[in-house]
């Protein structure tokens, strides 16, 4: 989601270093605008030491947290661009007022970019995977039984969501989806799972009574992106893999409930966003406060199948 901001900053002639958590390093390495990735250390003191040693002239702070502004402040970076809020205004120089109104998250930093002298982005996020990375994704899917000879289409199903269980379409719905997809001889379905989501994927696989291969827990994010790039479509909750799939050009059937697709729908063309528009959503809660999770349960398997077939170009 930050890629358009990075592209706009690079277009001004700036040399960009991204400060990121270790698991994000492979992903930022695939962003053309980024010259270097500086990995955050386990301790803030060590991170501050590494940032100060590099001698940056300015920082553009995208996260909203106090800590994200505290690190460049303590590192002594003289110019620190960012939005006020969360009692961090004194850490920013200059500090900007966050724009009001409901908009897609991709446009959150348009006001900040104008102030730093960068053009407002017009292109959607795009990851630039190397031929070697794309070949890895090709081979990883082949090992699950996907054929790339034109006789089958690869469909990915991602049932997880790091945010919490409220974002997840019910596992019995996913199991029924796998059963129905298994009746289509020319479709090859793979379950995508992140680290710590192996049990969820195994439960869905077991309840579906279909031997759907599981891929993903052992992959870093760039390798996951390479796998997603070879899918014809991804059925997914509102999640990180949804945005990665969109950034490599894979159409998504995106399932929304407690979050707002106006804010975080996948960027680009060809996506199908399913949302029930219940009176209680979006609530942005990790667990359903009403305990029924109707916003997700009311998304029927039939509706998801219809959107999936439309994404595949079928009646």
Give me the count of strands.
11
Q: Could you list the spans in which at least 5 consecutive residues all have pLDDT below 50?
A: none
- Spatial order of strands in the largest sheet: 8-7-6-9-10-11
State the helicity in percent bands.
Answer: 25-40%
Q: What characterizes the major β-sheet?
A: 6 strands, parallel
What fold name stands as the CATH topology of the largest domain? Rossmann fold
| CA gyration radius, whole angstroms | 21 Å
The CATH architecture of the largest domain can be given as 3-Layer(aba) Sandwich
Can you identify the CATH superfamily of the largest domain?
Glycogen Phosphorylase B
Q: Count up the domains.
A: 2
Strand content: 5-15%
Question: Pairing-aware structural class of the strands and helices?
Answer: alpha/beta
CA-to-CA gap between the ends? 32 Å
Q: What is the 3D shape?
A: globular
Average of per-residue pLDDT values: 94
What is the CATH class name of the largest domain?
Answer: Alpha Beta
| SSE sequence, one letter per element | HEHEHEHEEHHEHEHEHEHEHEHH
Number of helices: 13
Features of the shown structure:
315 residues, alpha/beta, Rossmann fold, six-stranded parallel beta sheet, three-stranded parallel beta sheet
How would you describe this structure to a colleague?
The chain is an alpha/beta fold. It folds into 2 domains: 113 residues, Glycogen Phosphorylase B (Rossmann fold, 3-Layer(aba) Sandwich), CATH 3.40.50.2000; 181 residues, Rossmann fold. The chain is built from 13 helices and 11 strands. It has a 6-stranded parallel beta sheet, with helices on both faces. Helix 4 links the parallel strand 3 and strand 4. Helix 6 packs across helix 9. The longest helix has 12 residues. The protein is globular. The two termini are 32 Å apart. 38% of the residues are buried.
